[in-house]
Design goal:
single chain; about 170 residues; alpha+beta; six-stranded antiparallel β-sheet; 5 helices; globular; disordered N terminus
């Protein structure tokens, strides 16, 4: 299996990652640093997703690391939280609305203990934030204005509300 580093990539390398993802090559990211605002430390490498669509969504989301958060953006160079998950799942052929609350009503409910890579994880009440679980207690998300798409510990988020499996 071919692997590629998917941490913060310059635009020239991002095109190569997009080609690999588009060709169905599963990219296994190297460990990334977790958010300094919650948890710190080094994130564990993600676990493999349970199916091809979920893996493609995970790989696509991870390839966006370092892209800026912009409210209402859905790629390809900037994202808000639901725009990132919408973009990632679109690469896997799954259409999602551009709203974390709307996304929280799709698919099948999943308990936090049963999360698998590709599951969407939601926060706050009412739901106002979404990320994508990547395995080993980690998620990728577009956090907030002034930040970038990054991998963080699920525990660093607090206020977990629900999770949904789409594929």
């Amino acid at each position: 299996m071919t692997t590629a580093r998917t941490s913060i990539l310059p635009r020239s390398r991002r095109a190569a990652v997009a080609v690999l993802v588009g060709a169905g090559v599963a990219l296994t990211p190297l460990p990334a640093f977790a958010s300094s605002s919650g948890g710190g430390g080094v994130a564990a490498a993600p676990a493999p997703a349970p199916n091809g669509a979920a893996q493609k969504a995970v790989d696509t989301a991870l390839a966006q690391q370092g892209d800026p958060y912009v409210w209402a953006a859905a790629g390809p160079d900037a994202f808000d939280c639901s725009g990132l998950t919408q973009y990632a799942y679109a690469a896997a052929g799954v259409k999602l609305p551009h709203s974390s609350l709307s996304q929280s009503k799709l698919g099948t409910p999943v308990s936090r203990a049963d999360l698998r890579p590709g599951d969407l994880v939601f926060f706050y009440s009412p739901v106002s934030h979404v990320g994508m679980y990547i395995g080993n207690g980690q998620m990728v998300h577009a956090p907030t204005s002034g930040s970038v798409v990054k991998v963080v510990s699920l525990d660093a988020m607090g206020s977990f509300t629900t999770a949904r499996r789409l594929t």
